Amino acid sequence: MTKLGLIRHGSTAWNKERRAQGSSNIPLDQDGIRDAESLADRIKDEEWDVIYSSDLLRAMQTAEIVARNLQVDEVFLDSRLQEVNGGQIEGTTEPERIEKWGENWRDLDLGIESREMVIKRALSFIEEVTEKHKDQIVVSHGSYIRHVLRELVKDLKMEDHLENTSVSTVKVREGLWECELYNCTKHLGGK
């Protein structure tokens, strides 16, 4: 049985401003660092074989904090774990998008990466790492993780928003993925 621990990176200034981050390389803010440390403390006694991370700064910083507490020597970076590329909307807020492109901006071709492309790179990554390791932590991004969970666990009822530093775990047994934990933030005093 293979287990994936899917962790969303800690918070950034753009998260607080509700700006689309996508593939923009934004660092953690002080709350993000503190919350990643709380997460690392929460999982320090768990057994994980390896940590993979998106190569975007906010995910790498989160993964490095977790790795220190788990005493894992190396974090493996993989561009297939990057957030959904937001094209022209990166760096903008919802009101800014409406002002620039109108209420129906989602219907326009603004260069946003398609769900199919995200799933293609996600499944490529998952197939590769599940052949190598039994239990892995994957530090990535909110939209990316939601796409992965929807693809792997078809009947999973998901909230719209994954919290920063939330943990979701999935296991595969006889070819079927099941969700053990979803959007858990108990290290922050949440559920």
Helix content: 25-40%
Order of the strands making up the biggest sheet: 3-2-4-1-5-6
Strand content: 15-25%
Uncertain runs are: none
- Give the termini distance in whole angstroms: 26 Å
Rounded Rg: 16 Å
Helix and strand content put the structural class at alpha/beta
Number of helices: 6
Largest sheet report = 6 strands, mixed
Please, what is the oligomeric state?
single chain
Mean pLDDT: 94
The total beta strand count reads 6
Q: Would you give an account of this structure?
A:
The protein is an alpha/beta fold. The protein contains six helices and six strands; from the N terminus they run βααβαβααβαββ. The chain has a six-stranded mixed β-sheet with strand order 3-2-4-1-5-6, with helices on both faces. Strand 2, helix 3 and strand 3 (75-77) form a beta-alpha-beta unit. The chain is globular and about 50 Å long.
